[in-house]
Design goal:
There is one protein chain. The protein has 18 helices and 13 strands. The protein is rod-shaped and about 165 Å long. It has three domains: about 60 residues, no CATH class; about 200 residues, GAF domain (Beta-Lactamase); about 150 residues, 2-Layer Sandwich (Heat Shock Protein 90), CATH 3.30.565.10. By secondary structure, it is an alpha+beta fold. The strands form three sheets. It has a six-stranded antiparallel beta sheet with strand order 3-2-1-6-5-4, sandwiched between helices. The chain starts with about 30 loop residues before the first helix and ends with a helix.
Length: about 550
């Protein structure tokens, strides 16, 4: 009998079977594979079966059943192979994502990977996803991040961009983290702001998913008795999937995903895949959140330690200052009266001594030394008094004008001009008038010493940043950084009293009062001394 099909020949020639295509040449010499892969579905083979049936072949009635079973089993194998391929892709995908989740402790980076994986076609392929996280007080779920398009046009643009760039999932997540994270938060700001669900509201569908620790596929949401209508209306979709995020029985949050653009059905496999994905996600989010909180607490502890150290140093400094102040005050008071008597007698004798009196030179020396000792005592007593300021309300412009008038004679002798630039309408300051006057006189005296050949001193007052600023600028040689540290360091450099100690006392007075005292060297030359004094807010309020 002549058969149309090639099933009866072990080896065939090219062209004898029209079903064998390019790349399948091995089937020419393999009868078993040729029968299973080509002959079963070949019209010529069916014609041969009909010819056998007409000839009354004994196996012809059984053979169709065998072939039907063979085709059914082959279909199952193909379906199983497709399923295994899908699972293999999913395992590789989860492995790739898990590596990122395990190594990152940045919350936004973790969430970028998670939301990209859910919405990307190379991931789970959902159109849109919203993430709600439990707040720090564990009282409510709050919308944190939304990802996806809001219209078909935006979706088409995104899909075209993905197809053009052909990024891997990891590259897409990295690009999203760098360029789109903040814009996505802003894009869904209106929805995220309203996505707030108290954890105590047990009847809410999100809390039910957390409580039962399983995903819930919500269908027909607008008419579903288990779903709040306002909640469904806010999402704007009839079908969505709720995936709980739970780590070690801690409720981390939930992910709401949907296909709002394509309206593609959410399959049981989608639900199962996202449920599997949720376990490493919840752990990664919890770890990143804990790390973030740990960093916040570390910053607080570090700041507290710095402040504590500053307070301890201040306490030690204040104790030392108080002890030094007490000792120096007692010494100063003990020698002040005898010194004034000596100086008074010396000046009296000097006035009565004739020009050719041989004792006149000695008397003049006694007067000069007494005057220097009186200045030292003034510094010492000012330092002692600075520990106990007598604060009151004063006009800073009046203070500056008075000090300038008092020093007018000394400034003229040194050929130094003093110019006042006082801002009108300044509010009063709450200060110790005597001590601030001492500081201003000390600054001017220091400036005079740095201008032996004459020059100019500008005194300025103004209001800035809630402070009354009293600034003094000279035209002398600028103070170097080393000299500045020496001039403002009190009893730390071995200085003798009366030898440049005034600025150190000024700095101490200002710091004790809670004010600031800075020294600058402007690019234009000279030195600028800046005192910031507090505004008397009570005076402003009452006045």
């Amino acid at each position: 009998m002549d058969w149309e099909c090639c099933w009866d020949r072990e080896v065939i020639e090219p062209g004898e079977c029209p079903n064998i295509g390019e790349g399948e040449e091995v089937l020419y010499t393999s009868l078993r594979r040729r029968v299973l892969e080509k002959c079963v579905d070949c019209p010529r083979f069916r014609a041969d079966l009909q010819q056998m049936r007409e000839s009354g072949a004994p196996m012809v009635e059984i053979l169709p059943h065998i072939l039907a079973e063979l085709q059914e089993q082959r279909g199952k194998l193909q379906a199983m192979g497709s399923f295994l391929d899908s699972r293999d892709r999913e395992i590789k995908f989860l492995h790739e994502i898990s590596l990122v989740l395990q190594t990152s402790v940045d919350l936004d980076e973790v969430l970028s990977v998670v939301m990209t994986a859910i919405t990307a076609g190379k991931g789970f392929g959902m159109n849109r996803a919203f993430l709600l996280l439990a707040d720090k007080e564990r009282k409510a779920l709050k919308g944190y991040l939304g990802v996806g398009p809001r219209s078909y046009g935006e979706a088409w643009e995104t899909w075209s961009e993905i197809q053009r760039d052909d990024f891997t999932l990891k590259e897409m997540a990295k690009n999203f983290y760098k360029t789109k994270l903040s814009s996505e938060k802003q894009k869904f700001h209106d929805i995220l702001e309203r996505l707030v669900v108290p954890l105590a509201e047990h009847g809410h569908i999100l809390n039910r998913s957390l409580r039962e620790k399983r995903p819930i596929l919500v269908e027909n949401a607008f008419h579903n008795p288990d779903v709040d209508y306002a909640f469904a209306q806010m999402l704007g979709v009839d079908t969505f999937l709720i995936t709980p995020l739970i780590s070690r029985n801690r409720r981390i949050g939930v992910i709401i995903s949907d296909n709002c653009i394509t309206h593609k059905p959410i399959t049981p496999q989608d639900v199962q895949s996202l449920e599997t994905f949720a376990f490493p996600v919840a752990f990664a989010i919890e770890r990143a959140s804990l790390y973030e909180r740990l960093q916040e607490e570390l910053l607080k502890v570090t700041a507290a330690n710095v402040k504590l150290k500053e307070q301890q140093e201040l306490i030690v400094k204040m104790e030392r200052m108080a002890l030094v102040g007490k000792i120096t005050s007692n010494i100063a008071h003990s020698i002040r009266n005898p010194l004034m008597i000596i100086g008074g007698f010396a000046r009296s004798l000097l006035r009565t001594a004739s020009e050719d009196d041989p004792k006149r030179e000695f008397l003049d020396s006694i007067v000069r030394e007494t005057l220097q000792l009186e200045e030292v005592l003034e510094e010492v007593l000012n330092y002692s008094d600075s520990l106990y300021p007598a604060l009151d309300t004063w006009d800073v412009n009046h203070l500056a004008s008075t000090v300038c008038r008092e020093l007018h004679h000394r400034l003229s002798e040194r050929r130094i001009a003093c110019r006042l630039r006082l801002e009108t309408g300044l509010p009063p300051a709450r200060i110790d008038y005597r001590q601030v006057s001492y500081c201003l006189r000390t600054i001017i005296a220091t400036a005079m010493e740095r201008m032996p050949g004459g020059g100019e001193i500008d005194i300025e007052t103004r209001l800035g940043d809630g402070w009354i600023i009293l600034a003094v600028k000279d035209t002398g040689q600028p103070i170097t950084r080393e000299s500045l540290e020496e001039l403002t360091s009190f009893l730390d450099t071995g200085q003798e009293l009366g030898n440049g100690l005034g600025l150190a006392i000024c700095k101490t007075i200002m710091e004790t009062h809670g004010n600031t005292f800075d020294i600058e060297t402007p690019p234009t030359g000279g030195t600028r001394y800046i005192i910031k004094l507090p505004v008397n807010t009570e005076g402003i309020t009452n006045g």
